[in-house]
Structure formats: structure tokens, C-alpha cells
Design goal:
heterodimer, A: 319 residues, alpha/beta, Rossmann fold, 6-stranded parallel β-sheet, 11 helices, 11% strand, globular, B: 218 residues
């Protein structure tokens, strides 16, 4: 009986993994390729014009943006685990030189949340309600599994190009909505938490191609040896010593093994483009994690406060 | 319907024997009432599984409807041709080196049975891990081919390994020499069938997985 159940669960897991790339492939086959070939859409131009009207300043100096990409627990751009909300608000408050954007869902190429009208929309809406009643509900792990599969789609050299085109396009649209003028050399920091770190790397390749200066700030991210490492300005990887999930990236992705000398990861590492920042004894979740405002470090600061301080010291060192 | 149950029982038995590298697998299947249907069944299952992977590449190339079906058919025919070519090379070299004629059909049977690991070929679709799984399945198929070759030609283990190795080198050389022409011809054929060019290299076409490429550049 237990053996049969195990086989059933394994079969379901394999089926979910095999089917995971289909969403982005379908997007590419039905609309993505045309949208990319068509370039800037009229609607985007309207958004740009609206943004320009909203910002009457004549200042043409490059702007700075920080795009927050949530972890694998997210259901939509505005539907992230509750613990992240005050942290993102802190980013808004503390980073004075940056416009902080948090309206991109990193686990869908078209920025559609899981609870939108989609094939399994009912399932995700139900799981969302379950999670709202009990944030630690075991069933909520299905959301994480679904999003982890998309992380692997992003890191895959076969599927990644189409997936990353989609997410880069959505990030670019968000930048335009917030005042970025296409073609201007604005500075963009993609802040990826957990799985969002890899999604940030994947999208960076295309955003740099659009003329943006792109850096990636990974918070406990599962990072692969993505080819975008050759294009980004810098990668900061903030990690906790008690966080096995972020550490699994250097085991799971062969391009991060030390023997892969010519991999994008090791080349970027040798060029000094990657900075590993040890935050302390942080866990990935549950408690004493990156968003924990209750637990305190020996110096009296909260775990989350220390992360915010570190991010600020990296991005705005003189403030 | 009466024969369906026993057929599938024997089909799965043949697959299990191949996975176990049973040296008597070919002798066993030859003694079965539907030996040709059984070996063809193994190849068919493997082909369907690999075609599932090819379907993704067709989607990447934005090919749907009847063009999608034709694209799958063309790639299936190409896969069959590759295995037939492989069996011809193995048969010619084995007969020449062994000094005794072996019926071609026997060699073809061995080559088809050795495709059994490719029944899991659909797993190459798994993101990130799929590429490694594909390489593992190719290596597993090569080991199966090694085992059945030793039985087919009555060689010992190491001469059979050498034969499989030499046939692989010959296949590779043929691939290198004819790659540009085959690639061009296939691209033209695919374009005629599918209505748009393919983003698949000649090496991808000739690696035994004509449509499943390691990297797709959009």
C-alpha cells in the first residue's frame, strides 16, 4: 500500500516536471515569438507616455531601479508570502536612490499569477485559501514545487532562452511603467530571493541587451551557471550558513563545480564579478530566516534588519 | 483481444531482460511466437517516447496542426533510417570481422531491442536534468547494444565492445562527412513540411535525436 502510494507520488512528480516547460513553450508558440519580433508594443508606448507625463522632471541622468523577484512561495506578483511584505516595504523606505518595483511575478512568462484564469487556476486558488488559513500547511508545498520546476525551466539551456525572454519582457514593461525610457542606460538591480535569484540571472541576459546596466543581488538564491553571468555588471550572493537550499545550487548545477573551469560561473568568479556575502547563521525559512523581524542577532539587530542594512551598504554605500 | 495480454506480457519480459543485459534475451525472443512484433514493439515504444520530446522542439519552432503531425512523422522516419544505417554498419563489420555470415534480420533485431532504454526518452523533457538523463539513456542503450552484439555474433565480451566501438566511429565519420548535406536537406524538407526554418544544427540532426537539441537559440 505504502509502496503503491510512493510510486503514485513519484509518477505525479515526474509528470509535473515533464509538463513544466509546456506553459512557456505554449506562450512562445502562440504569442511570445510574435510579440518579441514586433518589438515595442503600442500599449507600452502609451504607458511610456503616461509615465513621462507623470514625471515632469527634465533630468536625463540615468535612473536606478531595484526589481524585487519573490521566492518560490509566491502565487502572483502581489500575492507573496506574508513575511516578505514588511521586508519589501523596508526596501522601498531605505533605498532612497532606487525606485523599487515589486509588480513582476517571476514564475510565469506573461506575469500571470497562479490564481488567474489558467488550467489549474482552481487548484492554486484553493491552495491560496488553505495557506491563508494556515501559512505552514503541508499542501502549500505544491506551490513551491510548481515554482521550483519553473526555476529549472529558467536554468535549462533548451527552455531557458524562451522563458527568460518572457520574464525579461515583463520586467522591462514594469521598468517602462515606472519611468524608464527604452534605450536609456539606466541601472537595474534584480533582487532575487530564493528561486527569484535564478530567474533574475536568466532575465539579465536580455535586459542587458536592451542597453540597461544590470546587476543581480541574490538573497539565499538557488543560482545556476547561467550564461548571463558574462553580461551582468556584478552578482552579490547573500547567504546564511544554516541555509541548505541556497547551498544546494553549487551541488546541483554542474557548472558551479570547481572542475568546470570554463563555465560561466567560474569565469565570472575568476573575474571578480561575484561577491559572496555571508550574513550569519540564517536559515532559509521557518525562523531565524532572512525576513525574520522577531529573532535578533547577538548585536541586537533583527535578522531581517541586518539583511536590509547589508543591502543598503552594497547599493548605497555612502548613505 | 485474445493475443493482446500475452503480447504485452512478453513485451515487458523482453524489455526487462534487455535492462538486465541478459545474454539470452535475443535467443529468448526468437523462440517467441511473435518475435518480430515484439522487437518492433520495443522500438515503437522507444520511438513514441522520443517523439514526445521532439514535439517540444516543434512547439519551440511554432509549428502546430497538420504541420506538427508531419514534422513528427518526418523525424520518426529519420530516426528509423538512422537505426537501419546503424544495423547495416554493425552487420557488415560483424560479418567481416567474425568471418561467418549472420542474417541481417538478426542484427536488426538486436539493434531494435537495444533501443529499450529509450522508452524513458520522454524524461529528457524534464527541465535541466533532462539533458543529463538523455546522455545516460544513450550510454545505457550503447551498453545494451554491446550485450546483444556479443550474443548475435557469438563474440566474447571484449571483441563485441570493440565492434560496437568501431561501428560507432564509422557512424560518427559518416555523420561528419555527410553532415552538411543531410542537415541542409533535412532543413529544406522540414521547412517544406513545417513552413518555417528550424533552429537545429547538423550535429543535433545526426546525434540520433534529430530534433532534440541541447541548446535552442530563439
Amino acid at each position: 500500500m505504502i509502496g503503491d502510494l510512493f510510486i503514485l507520488l513519484l509518477a505525479l512528480l515526474v509528470a509535473a516536471l515533464v509538463l513544466a516547460p509546456l506553459e512557456s513553450l505554449r506562450w512562445w508558440a502562440t504569442q511570445g515569438a510574435e510579440q518579441i519580433e514586433a518589438g515595442t508594443e503600442p500599449s507600452e508606448l502609451r504607458e511610456l507616455a503616461d509615465a513621462a507625463e507623470a514625471d515632469p522632471s527634465e533630468d536625463s541622468a540615468p535612473r536606478k531601479y531595484l526589481v524585487y523577484l519573490s521566492g518560490i512561495g509566491a502565487i502572483g506578483a502581489s500575492d507573496v508570502p506574508q513575511e516578505e511584505v514588511p521586508f519589501v516595504q523596508d526596501l522601498h523606505d531605505r533605498l532612497e536612490r532606487f525606485t523599487v518595483l515589486d509588480d513582476v511575478f517571476p514564475y510565469a512568462v506573461d506575469n500571470r499569477g497562479l490564481t488567474a484564469e489558467r488550467f489549474l487556476g482552481r487548484l492554486w486558488r484553493w491552495l491560496d485559501r488553505v495557506r491563508m488559513k494556515n501559512p505552514n500547511a503541508a499542501l502549500a508545498v505544491l506551490i513551491n514545487l510548481r515554482n521550483v520546476a519553473q526555476l529549472f525551466v529558467c536554468a535549462d539551456r533548451r527552455y531557458g532562452p524562451t522563458y527568460n525572454l518572457g520574464t525579461a519582457r515583463e520586467i522591462h514593461k514594469s521598468l517602462v511603467r515606472h519611468g524608464h525610457r527604452p534605450g536609456s542606460p539606466d541601472e537595474v538591480v534584480l533582487f532575487g530571493w530564493s528561486g527569484g535569484g535564478q530567474i533574475a540571472l536568466g532575465a539579465a541576459w536580455y535586459l542587458q541587451a536592451l542597453g540597461l546596466r544590470v546587476s543581480v543581488l541574490s538573497l539565499g538564491g538557488m543560482l545556476s551557471d547561467d550564461i548571463a553571468l558574462a553580461r551582468i555588471e556584478h552578482l552579490w550572493h547573500l547567504y546564511g550558513t544554516k541555509d541548505p537550499l541556497q547551498a544546494s545550487g553549487k551541488v546541483m548545477f554542474a557548472g558551479r563545480w570547481p572542475i568546470a573551469k570554463a563555465s560561466p560561473w567560474n569565469v565570472a568568479l575568476s573575474e571578480g564579478k561575484i561577491t559572496m556575502v555571508e550574513l550569519g547563521p540564517y536559515r532559509h525559512n521557518v525562523k531565524q530566516h532572512y525576513f525574520d523581524y522577531d529573532s535578533t542577532l547577538p548585536d541586537g539587530r533583527s535578522y531581517a534588519g541586518n539583511v536590509i542594512d547589508t543591502v543598503e551598504s552594497i547599493l548605497e554605500p555612502s548613505s | 483481444m485474445y493475443y493482446v495480454g500475452p503480447y504485452f506480457d512478453r513485451l515487458f519480459e523482453l524489455i526487462a531482460r534487455t535492462y538486465r543485459l541478459d545474454p539470452a534475451a535475443l535467443t529468448w525472443v526468437r523462440d517467441q511466437p511473435y518475435s518480430i512484433a515484439l522487437t518492433a514493439g520495443v522500438a515503437l515504444l522507444a520511438g513514441i517516447s522520443v517523439m514526445f520530446g521532439h514535439a517540444v522542439v516543434l512547439l519551440l519552432n511554432r509549428i502546430t496542426g497538420w504541420r506538427f503531425a508531419m514534422g513528427l512523422l518526418v523525424s520518426a522516419v529519420w530516426l528509423v533510417l538512422l537505426h537501419v544505417l546503424e544495423s547495416v554498419v554493425l552487420w557488415g563489420l560483424g560479418s567481416w570481422l567474425g568471418g561467418q555470415p549472420v542474417p541481417y534480420l538478426t542484427v536488426l533485431t538486436g539493434v531494435l531491442v537495444a533501443t529499450a532504454p529509450q522508452i524513458w526518452g520522454f524524461l529528457v523533457l524534464i527541465p535541466y536534468l533532462g539533458t543529463a538523463i538523455g546522455r545516460f539513456l544513450s550510454a545505457w542503450s550503447a551498453v545494451c547494444l554491446w550485450a546483444v552484439t556479443a550474443t548475435t555474433f557469438g563474440f566474447g565480451r571484449w571483441p563485441a565492445l570493440a565492434l560496437v566501438g568501431v561501428s560507432w566511429v564509422v557512424m560518427h565519420l559518416v555523420s561528419l562527412i555527410v553532415s552538411p548535406w543531410i542537415s541542409k536537406a533535412l532543413s529544406q524538407l522540414f521547412e517544406r513540411v513545417a513552413g518555417r526554418p528550424f533552429w537545429v544544427s547538423g550535429a543535433d540532426v545526426l546525434n540520433g535525436r534529430p530534433l532534440v537539441t541541447n541548446e535552442v537559440q530563439p
